[in-house]
Design goal:
By secondary structure, the protein is of the alpha/beta class. It has helices spanning about 40-55, 65-75, 90-100, 115-130, 145-150, 155-170, 185-195, 215-230, 245-255, 280-290, 310-315, 345-370, and strands at about 15, 20, 30-35, 60, 85, 105, 130-135, 175-180, 205, 235, 265-270, 300-305, 320, 325-330, 335-340. Helices cover about 40% and strands about 20% of the residues. The chain binds iron/sulfur cluster.
Length: about 375
């Protein structure tokens, strides 16, 4: 019961970040970044495992020193998700993390300095099959570009990106992805739209320094929503001044809302009003927490009364419509059975888990048929 996204994605060249494909027809990946001290290996590993459990595809880790590069190696051995090392200027750190098995280098070639150092990093990346992420940020535009444009503009961001891209072109290294971030929604969207036609590499979307949990989530959703609707974007990070796990959840919610990626429970719930026959808000809050572990895509409607309940229930896997004296559960769009208010959440949880088991079983059988197993 899933809605097909009408979005036509921009065709980009695929790169591999560890075992995660980025670009081409790969699913749009969701990233986050650790905010622990990288030299604190235990804390950083703990945070990455938390992000893995939340479903993150790729994690970025800051590597500001050689001590952090050494810690990066220990961290890398203890986690499964691909890791990007975030490096500024120091090519020796890039070479060190390459030895430690990094899956992608976030380093701007134009900031490394001498040509021989840039070449050394690119040759090392080529030898080890490590892609590069160029990350242009309105807050750290080159001084000449600030002078030329007077202030950060979409054109200035694109010109900055092209300087880094030209270096990789000269060194014949096409395995990179690019981000062009600003904290302003209009600038971010305009910059990505400008660059999208000029290069074939995958684009990493994000609004930088977007804000706290609520304002950052809204700003990111607006900017990324516009770009994704245009078919632009191969991977994304929602930058929030909040727990990085929230970045992953908001990232997936943005993709889910555009049917670009299905993961976990897709809730449809009414805001409730005095017509509600059960406490919709309380039910939703409890259900969201109880069903957080589910990764199988499943659509669930929780609607307070018959005004919109039966209509919404028709198009979901499991639906609940408020009614008196009983509420009604729907399965696969059809009325199934009645349920009282006092065991509503338990019953809904049970129904959703049963449905997920059924979907998983069918997927397992389909996979067996595909590979010709008995
Ligand atoms: S579906 Fe019913 S309870 Fe929910 S907001 Fe609409 S009228 Fe109110």
């Amino acid at each position: 019961m899933h809605f097909e996204s009408p979005i036509k994605r921009r065709k980009s060249r695929q790169i591999m970040v560890g075992n995660v494909p980025v670009g081409g027809d790969a699913p749009i990946s969701v990233q986050s970044m650790t905010n622990t001290e990288t030299t604190d290996v235990e804390a950083t590993v703990g945070q990455i495992i938390g992000l893995e459990n939340a479903g993150v595809d790729i994690v970025r880790v800051s590597v500001p020193s050689m001590d952090a590069a050494e810690a990066f190696g220990h961290i890398k051995k203890r986690v499964n998700v691909p890791l990007i090392a975030d490096i500024h200027f120091d090519h020796k750190i890039a070479l060190a993390v390459a030895e430690q098995g990094v899956d992608c280098l976030r380093i701007n070639p134009g900031n490394i300095g001498r040509e021989d150092r840039v070449r050394e990093v690119v040759d090392c990346a080529r030898d080890k099959g490590i892609p590069i992420r160029i990350g242009v940020n309105a807050g750290s535009l080159e001084k000449e570009l600030q002078r030329k444009y007077g202030e950060p503009t979409p054109e200035a961001l694109v010109e900055s990106a092209m300087r880094h891209i030209d270096i990789l072109d000269r060194l014949n290294y096409p395995d990179f992805k690019l981000s062009l971030k600003a904290s302003n929604v209009f600038m971010t969207v305009a910059a990505y739209r400008l660059i999208a036609d000029q290069i074939e590499q995958p684009l990493h979307l994000g609004v930088t320094e977007a804000g706290g949990f609520r304002s950052g989530a809204v700003k990111s959703s607006v900017a990324l929503g516009m770009l994704l609707m245009d078919g632009i974007g191969d991977t994304l990070r929602v930058s929030l001044a909040a727990d990085p796990i929230q970045e992953v959840k908001v990232g997936f919610d943005i993709l889910k809302s555009l049917s670009l990626r299905a993961k976990g429970v897709n809730f449809i719930a009414c805001p409730s009003c005095s017509r509600q026959n059960f406490d919709v808000v309380k039910t939703m809050n409890e259900l969201e927490v109880r069903l957080e572990d589910i990764i199988t895509p499943v659509d669930v409607a929780v609607i307070g009364c018959v005004v919109n309940g039966p209509g919404e229930a028709k198009s979901v896997d499991i639906g609940l419509t408020g009614g008196t004296p009983n509420n009604l559960i729907y399965r696969d769009g059809k009325p199934s059975h009645k349920v009282k208010n006092d065991n509503l959440v338990d019953e809904l949880e049970r129904q959703v888990r049963e449905k997920v088991a059924e979907i998983d079983l069918k997927a397992g059988e389909a996979a067996k048929i595909t590979v010709g197993m008995p």
